[in-house]
Amino acid sequence: MKEDVKLLQNRIQLLKMEEKKVRYPQPLTTVQAWKKIEETKKKAKEIMTVRQRNAEIAKQKESRMIEKQNEERMLQERNLNMRMQRKEEIQMKLEQTVGKKREQANQIKMEN
């Protein structure tokens, strides 16, 4: 229990020290300021690189999606054309069959 109290006191003391640093920061030296500026530039460059990479990935993904949609549309059109062709072929065969039967019926009528 005493150890827990001591750990909590140490933690409180560390938090108070951190709070002082935040409230009353030490002025930066010129070297420190330049280091901060360089770090900031480096981070900004990294962020821009990541953004560009993400934008490129998104662009590629969109291109693949558009290509896939185009392929699907072409397949749908091809399937529709094939169905229409089959339908026309069936209709033509049906008309031929009906025509032959009429001719046969007419011949039978003429013979009688």
Fold and architecture overview:
The structure is a single chain. This protein is mostly helical and 112 residues long. Helix content is 93%, strand content 0%. It has helices spanning 2-23, 30-111. The longest helix is centred in the middle third of the chain and has 82 residues, at 30-111. The mean pLDDT is 89.
Beta-strand content estimate: under 5%
Per DSSP E runs of 2 or more residues, the count of β-strands stands at 0
Q: Uncertain runs with pLDDT below 50, 5 residues or more?
A: none
Class by alpha and beta content: mainly alpha
Oligomer: single chain
The helix content, as a percent range, equals over 70%
Keyphrases for this structure?
single chain; 112 residues; mainly alpha; 2 helices; 0% strand; rod-shaped
Q: Mind sketching the topology for me?
A:
Layout: H1 2-23, H2 30-111
How would you sum up this structure in a few lines?
The protein is mainly α. It contains 2 helices and no strands.
